[in-house]
Amino acid sequence: MNRLVKSIPNALTSCNLLCGCIAIVRALHGDLEMATIAIMVAAIFDFLDGFAARLLDARSSIGLELDSLADVVSFGVAPSAIFYYILSVTQKYISVEIPDIVPFAAFLIAVFSALRLAKFNIDKRQTESFIGLPTPACAIFACGLVYFDIFTATGYFVILALIATLCALLVCELPMFSLKLKKTESSLFIKKYGFQTVLTVCSLILLIIIQLKALSLIVGLYVLLSVVKNQLTIDN
Fold first, then answer.
1. Is the pLDDT of residue 17 over 80?
2. 101 has pLDDT over 90
3. How far apart are CA 107 and CA 93, in angstroms?
4. 199 with 222: CB under 8 angstroms?
5. Averaged over 108-126, what is the pLDDT?
6. What is the DSSP annotation of the chain?
7. CATH number, domain 2-176
């Protein structure tokens, strides 16, 4: 029974991986909304597997490796498939001749996500925060774009620019705060988790006002707040 309980985190990680596979298939078939849903469900499983591992004291080396493999699929390849489909469709609106290989640039997201996860696994600085954009945040950003009017000639070049930006953010040395909270005195909560609180409140407001379009804006706000927090830390 104890062994069965210990396997719960890995089962949740496997569900994350399965959702990522579904997202890839649906994205390549043009069903971007279903792909988005599958990625968001994968993100929920990604949160739950870590929570379960801590709750059940079931951390393991195989769990760490499985988690990274699942994340590469769900938060690296799946958003790449979304970008690839958008580029493939919008390329026909471009008046100049563009090589058919260009849309494959979307899969650089998968490559840089893999590099980011490999770096995370060996980087001892990332126990309580992150260095570079977390892969789930990158995937959520891609999900939000689905709900914008991006199937245009302009959208084609915007997507290419965003791919380059996201790849850079995934492997950059910018410290980014974690949303995981630990027990602390109430008087110190705002001081320690002020930026997380601001992000949470703003995210809820944006989701209420513009619904799922807010996903991309929330990730952008997360990056901006991380830059501000890092600058304040340096100044102090």
1. yes
2. yes
3. 21
4. yes
5. 89
6. -HHHHHTHHHHHHHHHHHHHHHHHHHHHTT-HHHHHHHHHHHHHHHHHHHHHHHHTT---HHHHHHHHHHHHIIIIIHHHHHHHHHHHHHGGG-SS---TTGGGGGGHHHHHHHHHHHHHHH-GGGSSEEES--HHHHHHHHHHHTTS---SHHHHHHHHHHHHHHHHHHHS--EEE--------HHHHHHHHHHHHHHHHHHHHHHHHHGGGHHHHHHHHHHHHHHHHHHHHHH-
7. 1.20.120.1760
Give the pLDDT band (50/70/90) at residue 8: confident
**pLDDT tens digits, 137-180:** 999 999 999 999 889 989 999 999 999 999 999 999 899 988 77
Identify the CA nearest to 50 among candidates 8, 22, 3, 79.
8
Dihedral angle over CA of 73, 79, 80, 86, nearest 10: 150
Domain boundaries of the chain, sorted by first residue: 2-176
Query: Is the whole model's pTM more than 0.70, yes or no?
Result: yes
